[in-house]
Amino acid sequence: MMNLTIGAPIKALEQMTETRDLNGFNAAYGRLTESCNSCHAALNHTFVVIKTPDQSSFSNQDFRAAK
Fold first, then answer.
1. CA atoms of 51 and 33, how far apart (whole Å)
2. Is the pLDDT of residue 44 over 90?
3. Alpha-carbon distance 16 to 2, whole Å?
4. Helix 2-19 and helix 22-42: axis angle, to 10°?
5. Pick from 1, 7, 25, 34: most CB atoms within 10 A?
6. CA pair distance 19, 50, nearest whole angstrom
7. Would you kindly state where each structural domain of the chain is located, as residue ranges?
């Protein structure tokens, strides 16, 4: 079930990473997140919700490009 649900979104995410396409990456990440949540719902695990992070897990690091 996982391959059917997230196989294509994972491949799209990998492709966007390889081509360094930020907009494409964000869109693919959104599709992957939706796919994960759809699978959880289909398995009656709606209490497991994946979401886009709203803050960095690395508060002591700045990943913006240097000026």
1. 7
2. yes
3. 21
4. 170
5. 25
6. 25
7. 2-42
